[in-house]
Amino acid sequence: MVGIRAQQKEKTRRQLIDAALTQLSAERSFSSLSLREVAKEAGLAPTSFYRHFTDMDELGLTLVDEAGLTLRQLMRQARQRIENGGSVITTSVVTFMEFIEDNGNIFRLLLRERSGTSAAFRAAVSREVRYFTMELCDYLQHANQLDAEVAYLQANAAVTIVFSAGSDALDVDKKERQQLADRTVGQLRIIAKGAHDFSLRKKKLAKTKE
């Protein structure tokens, strides 16, 4: 019985999260949503909201956490696809652009709250971006035999470029999104080449000091 109640509670919580995401758009930010609107979209009474979230801010922080997790999971899947052959950069950019196309509202949330008025929201988005960067850093460090410093510099630059491209890709057609993807792949390849060369120079310099 307890298990059934827990499942129902989680289902209702999910309805509220999905209802908030559904209402986000290019014209509507999370801060413009009201508790009543979210509850109504979810098919619930406003009082039911408080059984799952203390207020709209808690719901918003949950959305940010979920957005970051969704994106990280997709990129992990992209790296797994790479193990079967293919370019790490191209596959990652294609996966990211697919995420933008299918989850534009989620990405808009991250972009808006990253520079929004709420310090708690800004901190939450910064944390998600940091997680994203560090996962990529770990991958680059092991896959490309880069030292930690070079891997982090490459990962940080890559995330900055990709997020910027994602912002541009939100409201363009498929052809323009493909052009953005091609340009992003080129930029990331230049950064990867620079990171590789920089890493080699560091290793040579270290050997001369031995």
Structural domain tally:
2
Which CATH class of the largest domain?
Mainly Alpha
Question: Which fold name is given in CATH as the topology of the largest domain?
Answer: Tetracycline Repressor, domain 2
What is the H/E order?
A: HHHHHHHHH
| Average predicted confidence as pLDDT | 89
Helix-and-strand structural type: mainly alpha
CATH homologous superfamily annotation of the largest domain: Tetracycline Repressor, domain 2
Notes on the protein architecture:
This protein has 210 residues and is an all-alpha fold. Helix 5 packs across helix 6 (104-114). It has helices spanning 2-23, 35-42, 46-49, 56-82, 88-102, 104-114, 119-143, 148-169, 174-208. It has 2 domains: 1-53, Arc Repressor Mutant, subunit A; 56-208, Tetracycline Repressor, domain 2, CATH 1.10.357. The protein starts with a helix and ends with a helix. The radius of gyration is 20 Å and the shape is elongated. The protein is built from 9 helices and no strands. The model has no long low-confidence stretch (mean pLDDT 89).
Topology:
Elements: H1 2-23, H2 35-42, H3 46-49, H4 56-82, H5 88-102, H6 104-114, H7 119-143, H8 148-169, H9 174-208
